[in-house]
Amino acid sequence: MLNMVFLINSWLSSFNQPGLCITVAVLLHYFLLAAFTWMCLESVHFYLALVKVFNVYVPKYILKCCIAGWGMPAVVITIVLIINKDFYGNGSHSESNPFSNFCWIQENIVFYISVVAYVFLIFLMNTAMFITVLLQIHSVKSRTQKTSRFWKR
């Protein structure tokens, strides 16, 4: 959906309908955040599968993942819309090229907080999960090598 909304964004913005442009910008923002949120949930799943292998039972795991994956971006979008729906709109107004318009976040501060900071936090989370998984794999590998040396003797 992110790709679809992105591809039709400039075409829809050429209609010069503020409501349509706000809707498209909100959808683009939502699906972008949802994609990164699901990427973060994949790293958590990776951690659970490779580090916490045994005795990991999370009741209604898929439901909780879906609520987090679709809900956290919705909360961010709702907060932005409650503060001011005019943060979303048409980016440029070029008369020579009507398709240069693009519906997106208009305020830099809102962009940096609701997109850049959000993606940065997910990047930190994914990096932490990756390092944890690598350390776990390395410790399992070193334990296996020590055990095999012991049995060879």
UniProtKB/TrEMBL annotation:
Q: Which Pfam families match?
A: 7tm_2
Query: What's one GO BP annotation on this UniProt entry?
Result: adenylate cyclase-activating G protein-coupled receptor signaling pathway
Q: Which residues cross the membrane?
A: 20-41, 61-83, 109-135
Q: How does it sit in the membrane?
A: Multi-pass membrane protein
Molecular function GO labels: G protein-coupled receptor activity
Q: Can you list the GO cellular component terms from the UniProt entry?
A: plasma membrane
Main subcellular location of this protein, as a coarse class:
membrane
- InterPro entries the UniProt entry points to: GPCR_2-like_7TM, GPCR_2_secretin-like
* Compartments, as annotated in UniProt: Membrane
Q: Keywords assigned by UniProt?
A: Membrane, Transmembrane, Transmembrane helix
Could you tell me which residue ranges the G-protein coupled receptors family 2 profile domain spans? 1-153
The protein's name: AGRG4 protein
